[in-house]
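Retro notes (design track)

What went well: tokenization of the new backbones is finally stable.
What didn't: we kept losing track of which sequence belonged to which structure.
Fix going forward: every design gets posted as structure first, then sequence, in one message. First example under the new rule, 147 residues:
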């Protein structure tokens, strides 16, 4: 029963990552004429997905480490995903929001910094997305060996 709950928790987290990052945010920017509004809405959705990850990752990590051991690669992937989501939630996103609040004039230092941080954030988000899909495909727990 716990294994099914784990898969459900991971599926909700990964589903949210994929739906927001690769469907909702691009649609906002493609549909809305106001890029600032699109960015604000996307940022709010990314914050919510971040909180989902901050709840899901420790639960999954605790369970994975207690059943498969902390040395198992799945536990290390979950730990990396947790560190990434925390870094994005408490480091990158607030800093990017402060840069936006200053105003992002084309060619300004703030705009260049924002672009760089957006690129880093996108790569980290992609890592978490791919890692989450891999965990779903491979399973959270190692398969029992047949003897």
């Amino acid at each position: 029963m716990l294994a099914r709950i784990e898969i459900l928790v991971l599926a909700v987290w990964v589903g949210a990552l994929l739906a927001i990052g690769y469907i909702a945010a691009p649609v906002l920017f493609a549909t809305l004429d106001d890029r600032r509004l699109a960015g604000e809405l996307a940022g709010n959705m990314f914050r919510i997905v971040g909180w989902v990850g901050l709840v899901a990752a420790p639960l999954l990590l605790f369970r994975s480490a207690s059943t498969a051991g902390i040395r198992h690669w799945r536990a290390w992937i979950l730990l990396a995903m947790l560190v990434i989501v925390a870094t994005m939630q408490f480091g990158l996103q607030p800093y990017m929001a402060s840069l936006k609040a200053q105003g992002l004039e084309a060619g300004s230092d703030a705009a260049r910094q924002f672009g760089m941080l957006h690129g880093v954030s996108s790569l980290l988000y992609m890592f978490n997305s791919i890692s989450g899909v891999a965990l779903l495909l491979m399973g959270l727990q190692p398969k029992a060996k047949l003897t």
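Added context from the reviewer: The longest helix spans residues 35-67.
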